[in-house]
Request: fold
Amino acid sequence: DIVMTQSPDSLAVSLGERATINCKSSQSVLYNSKNKNYLAWYQQKPGQPPKLLIYWASTRESGVPDRFSGSGSGTEFTLTISSLQAEDVAVYYCQQYYDTPRTFGQGTKVEIK
Amino acid sequence: QVQLQESGPGLVRPSETLSLTCSVSGGPMTSFYWNWIRQSPGKGLEWIGNIYYAGSTKYSPSLRSRVTMSVDTSKNQFSLKIKSLTAADTAMYYCARGPSYGPNGYLEYWGQGILVTVSS
Reply:
């Protein structure tokens, strides 16, 4: 299985400041022939299912605010919230869909400082 | 807007079989891949497998021996069965839709989830 490791496990950021979450995969999730990274990011708020934010490592899902951005390639990826809002308090997960089984990171909890 | 809704028992006895159904509304089942994922405090998010609208399946190797998925497009539903349950199968179970381009996909739409407890 491809192991997804996120860092940090939690972070506290002041409102309006930048939040950065890292995700590392145990093997590359870049499909070379298609030049696509099979990596998604999800946001999960308490009592709710995960919500897709980013796919193909950097494509924002429709309706997702542009303060959310994804970057990286191969085995190292980053989710950035450029200006943290109160409604962004949640747990964030990365997921690879390059191989079976699909695997998720352990999650990063984002809170307000 | 595509909506998914899980249904099934909230409590199942050890060694029995869990049967869950996901009802799909607001969009077609054809051309898409339909997934099951579970979430437990101890193991986080775990992908169980997916089924194409035409019936082909892909299961997680760790669960393959105990899992069966099926689809009924006439009812806009797909289903999950897990046999030989243990306490380790206690989790929130979600159904989700993947994109249409292939089985290796991100998860665009999720149901609200159903909490399943395995206990005698």
About this structure: Chain A has a mean pLDDT of 97. The radius of gyration of chain A is 13 Å. Chain A touches chain B at residues 1, 38, 40, 42, 48-52, 55, 61, 93, 95, 97-104, 106-107 (CB under 8 Å). DSSP finds no helices and 13 strands in chain A.
